[in-house]
Amino acid sequence: MKHSTVLLMVLALALAAGSASAQDAENVEQVGRIYNHWTGVGDVTVIDDLAYVATGMSGLQIVDISDSENLEVIGYWDYINSAYGVAVSGDYAYVSNYWGGLYVISVADPEHPQEVGYLDTDGNACNVTVSGDYAYLANRSSGLRIISIADPENPEEVGYYETEGAALGVSVSGNYAYVAASGSGLRVISIADPENPEEVGYCDTPGWAYEVAISGNYAYVAASRSGLRVISIADPENPEEVGHYDPPVSAVDVAVSGNYAYVADDERGLRVISIADPENPVEVGYYDTPGRAKGVTVSGNYAYIANYESGLGVISIADPESPVEVGYYDTDYCWFNGVMVSGDYVYATDYNRGLRIISVVDPENPVEVGYCDTPGWFYGVTVSGDYAYVAGGGSGLRIISVVDPEHPEEAGYYDTPGDARGVTVSGDYAYVADLRSGLRVISVADPENPEEVGYYDTPGEAWGVAVSGNYAYVADYESGLRVISVADPENPQEVGHYGKTGPVFGVTVSGEYAYVADLSSLRVISVADPEHPEEVGYYDTPGHANSVALSEDGLIYVADWTNVGIYRFIDPAKVNDPAVSVPVKFNLSAAYPNPFNSITKLSYGLPTTADVSVRVLDISGRLITTLIDQRKTPGRYSVAWNGMGVPAGIYFVQLKADAFFDMKKVVLMK
């Protein structure tokens, strides 16, 4: 597969008004985005000229494949924690969310897919297939789940069968569901009565069974390091292995077309196996993809490969013995942490690949024109004059000359005592949010020789900072927005704070408003009175909101891990109905991120004033910590749990609000 050193970028079309209103938001609407990268590719389904791709935290991506040599993303829905598998039937895409459940996405308009239904299932939802009015979900920890989709907007589980082994893949033929279960091979389950599924046969394959495809009287099982196993299902109650092909290093998916099985090999790409004689399968061709092939589907003369690191590959199989790549959609794996807009350029920091400079002269066709990869991990960025100031984590403040945006070059640096996460410049000073040592004030009168002149140690971890007038606004991870007077830069003093947010990462200020990125949402805070800040709007973003910037036309750019989203604040003082929206019922959202290795966040809604308790329990029900125990007024709230110091494992976050009770599972990884 051809690799480009330049990031491929897609500017998605502006979302329709209905799209924005479908999200949890108040006084903020999404209008579009630049940079739409995928965190990983796990599955792909092709219908006519469209490929539907499950891309982890980047959700469902819809790719136009009508020109196999020039693929184009035309739509996406990424409000999904971890899109693992995808099936399409009629006007709907059914996406399995690894961390729990099935999403139903309307794709009647592929350029503007919309979530219309959701069902939260127990365990880890791996792959999904659809047959008639039912979706069949292979659930790693709870077997086969059968979901009625007769009404796609109200999916309902009607039956399940707990398979032996972890259910990873599923295929349906006639009255039987064939489940690939790691450790226990192929399980055959009668679904004649979907409400009462029953296992009627099995064939224990060597290796871990990942996926299964059915063709005629045979089931073809991708069995990891045991390759492709061919199982006769002429008698479904007595399946029997009749052939196998071992050489693939790690077979994880399989598709069958005609006399060939196309195997996704996790370590060696696409393998083409002749199954003209199912008892003696023989490899006749292959194509080594550059990354890990996770999924494969076939349509006409093409095989479509879901390649975890390098996106979607299109392989011509007109001659199965000589497969040739003819197209690809390459999605560089990246995490966007910081963003700044200046003139015709967007300056974005990629966590492990430095500063990326993107020309937006033509906003519909953004183009990366330059980059500078300095030492450290990259977080916040601001531009002042001829310099970009980058918060470089453990390597402090990095100052990069952008006189020539196509050839940026580091000009100076200052190694802060902690971990630089955010930065802004006002006058001759750079204000750095330093994770472990608060606000650092650095003179940049001479950008090549920066020098610290003052500091204020905030109570928590400082992640972001913005300056307006005589005030610095610091995004403090644990305690929200801190307002610090910098009238005397050498002696900064805190004068106010706003703490009703989740973990805060980034902040920018314009006029009377501070715009805050708080893990999974954009918050708009009125700072007309800096000593008494007050929230006036928010938008729950799909990813991990790390940083926020404003353009001259008032649009808000949020670096949201897998994308840079574009939003507009609707000033409540300028509309007729400034009333705050209140949830119509009690609710507790799924945790995000999940699994996590330090901090996770949940949101909850209160339709009435209630006594609220949020507690964390371990798997045995033992109390680990109490996050909230107080009376709260109606509204939407966020709560974060810092799992540092707690052993890795499965935990439960429990919400009690008067008579309402709900609980969500979270997985802490170390």
Tell me the number of strands: 60
**β-strand amount:** over 45%
The number of helices is 1
Q: If classified by CATH, what would the architecture of the largest domain be?
A: 7 Propeller
Instruction: Give the CA-CA distance, first to last residue.
Output: 34 Å
Average predicted confidence as pLDDT: 84
Question: What's the shape?
Answer: globular
- CATH domain topology of the largest domain: Methylamine Dehydrogenase, Chain H
Going by helix content, strand content and strand pairing, the class is mainly beta
Radius of gyration (CA) equals 26 Å
Helical proportion, percent range: under 10%
* Full CATH superfamily name of the largest domain: YVTN repeat-like/Quinoprotein amine dehydrogenase
Q: Please list the strands of the largest sheet in the order they lie side by side.
A: 1-50-49-48-47
Would you state the CATH class of the largest domain? Mainly Beta
Contiguous low-pLDDT stretches (5 residues minimum) are: 1-22, 575-580
Please summarize the sheet with the most strands. Answer: 5 strands, antiparallel
Estimate nothing, just give the exact number of structural domains.
3
Question: Can you summarize this structure?
Answer:
The protein contains 1 helix and 60 strands. By secondary structure, it is an all-beta fold.
Description of the molecule:
There is one protein chain. This protein is an all-beta fold. The protein has 3 domains: 38-329, Methylamine Dehydrogenase, Chain H; 336-571, YVTN repeat-like/Quinoprotein amine dehydrogenase (Methylamine Dehydrogenase, Chain H), CATH 2.130.10; 587-668, Immunoglobulin-like (Sandwich). Helices cover 1% and strands 56% of the residues. It has 1 helix and 60 strands. The strands form 15 sheets. Strands 1-50-49-48-47 form a 5-stranded antiparallel β-sheet, with no helix packed on it. A 4-stranded antiparallel β-sheet has the order 2-53-52-51. The longest helix has 5 residues, at 17-21. It starts with 16 loop residues before the first helix and ends with a strand.
